[in-house]
Specification:
This protein is of the alpha+beta class and 168 residues long. The protein has 2 helices and 8 strands; from the N terminus they run E-E-E-E-E-H-E-E-E-H. Strands 1, 2, 3, 4, 5, 6, 7 and 8 form an 8-stranded mixed β-sheet that branches. The N and C termini lie close together (8 Å).
């Protein structure tokens, strides 16, 4: 049997830039809550970037918040090189150990949702945290410069290698 070895390397920009989908529209979170588009309209920036919803553990700031078609998208910066804990969190994100985003908010307007949970139409966004397991399964870091893309590339290479093994 022949083997194909592919070595991948990636460079990351250590300025701490990060992006993510903080809340996907149209699907409920783990307790059945749905947040509708428009609920984030009054978000005040910059928004604190915490680790694990710990108000005593800020690691950066979210400087952009956009209600896109698929959900609330955030862009910001982990304070790499400025805050020791931010360096640790960035390492966790780069390693893929922390891939989720979870939001902290106060509900301002909501109603019951058929099937359980609430439909939230207005809220006060307080913070967005980097977490290992977010409340909404679709909330995730989508870019930490090239780290997330590198993990996706590695997964694609792995799938291709498996397909090649099966076809031989």
């Amino acid at each position: 049997m022949e083997r194909l070895f592919i070595e991948t390397k990636f460079a990351t920009d250590d300025n701490g830039a990060i992006e993510g989908l903080a809340w996907p529209f149209g699907t409920p979170d783990r307790v059945g809550d749905v947040i509708e588009k428009g609920a984030f309209a009054e978000a005040v920036l910059p928004l604190p970037m915490l680790f694990g919803h710990d108000g005593n553990d800020p690691v950066g700031a979210w400087t952009e918040a956009v209600e896109a078609e698929d959900g609330l998208r955030l862009k910001g910066r982990i304070l790499v090189g400025e805050v020791r804990r931010a360096d640790e969190v960035r390492a966790l994100v780069k390693a893929g150990a922390v891939r989720g985003i979870s939001i902290g908010f106060i509900t301002r307007k909501s109603g019951p949702r058929k099937g359980g949970g609430r439909t939230i139409t207005k809220l006060e966004l307080l913070e967005a945290s980097l977490v290992a397991i977010p409340m909404h399964p679709g909330a995730r870091v989508t870019s930490a410069k090239s780290a997330v893309q590198a993990l996706q590339l590695a997964a694609a290479i792995d799938r291709t290698a498996r397909a090649l093994r099966i076809s031989n």
